[in-house]
Automatic annotation (TrEMBL):
Keywords: Cell cycle, Cell division, Mitosis, Ubl conjugation pathway. Residues 1-185 form the DOC domain. The mammalian APC/C is composed at least of 14 distinct subunits ANAPC1, ANAPC2, CDC27/APC3, ANAPC4, ANAPC5, CDC16/APC6, ANAPC7, CDC23/APC8, ANAPC10, ANAPC11, CDC26/APC12, ANAPC13, ANAPC15 and ANAPC16 that assemble into a complex of at least 19 chains with a combined molecular mass of around 1.2 MDa; APC/C interacts with FZR1 and FBXO5. The C-terminus of APC10 binds to CDC27/APC3. Interacts with PIWIL1; interaction only takes place when PIWIL1 binds piRNA. Interacts with FBXO43; the interaction is direct. Transmembrane segments: none annotated. This is Anaphase-promoting complex subunit 10. GO terms for cellular component: anaphase-promoting complex; cytoplasm. Component of the anaphase promoting complex/cyclosome (APC/C), a cell cycle-regulated E3 ubiquitin-protein ligase complex that controls progression through mitosis and the G1 phase of the cell cycle. Coiled coil: none annotated. Belongs to the APC10 family.
């Protein structure tokens, strides 16, 4: 029997932002969790600190719900997981679902993770690499390593493409100093 390869880490999402092609939009959403231990909730999941984490407290699947106030274009989901620190709390199978609300979520990705250590980049695009437009994203942890019960996720980031506006295609306007012109009456 062969051992599956470990899940390779992706680049730090801040590098994606520095390219100017995407921006993080997690702060525009309302976040909720299926469960959490006190002091290990949404705040820790979104605090930009890789030492903190969300810890679920209940039966699987463990859910992270991300709801936007308006239909939003999303391109990439980044999840930070660390098997060396979290062992049996580390997700091994994740489902990513999108939809208008809880009642019509559709799975668009299912991931099998093998001892991940770092950022996992999940494209939220269709077969033509077109970003998804949605009101809601749900991340479901379906299984953990070593059959662990509760899960840890250290960070989640959501990115939208930065689109070039039509204004940006015109030459920049310069300010005219009108003091050198005489008024005509």
């Amino acid at each position: 029997m062969t051992t599956p390869n470990k899940t390779p880490p992706g680049a730090d999402p801040k590098q994606l932002e520095r390219t100017g092609t995407v921006r993080e939009i997690g702060s525009q959403a309302v976040w909720s969790l299926s469960s959490c231990k006190p002091g290990f909730g949404v705040d820790q999941l979104r605090d930009d600190n890789l030492e903190t984490y969300w810890q679920s407290d209940g039966s699987q699947p463990h859910l992270v719900n991300i709801q936007f106030r308006r239909k939003t274009t999303v391109k990439t989901l980044c999840i930070y997981a660390d098997y060396k620190s979290d062992e049996s709390y580390t997700p091994s199978k994740i489902s990513v679902r999108v939809g208008n609300n809880f009642h019509n979520l559709q799975e668009i990705r299912q991931l099998e993770l093998v001892e991940p250590s770092g950022w996992i980049h999940v494209p939220l695009t269709d077969n033509h690499k077109k970003p998804t437009r949605t009101f809601m994203i749900q991340i479901a942890v379906l299984a953990n390593h070593q059959n662990g019960r509760d899960t840890h996720m250290r960070q989640i980031k959501i990115y939208t493409p930065v689109e070039e506006s039509s204004i940006g295609k015109f030459p920049r306007c310069t300010t005219i100093d009108f003091t050198m012109y005489r008024s005509i009456r």
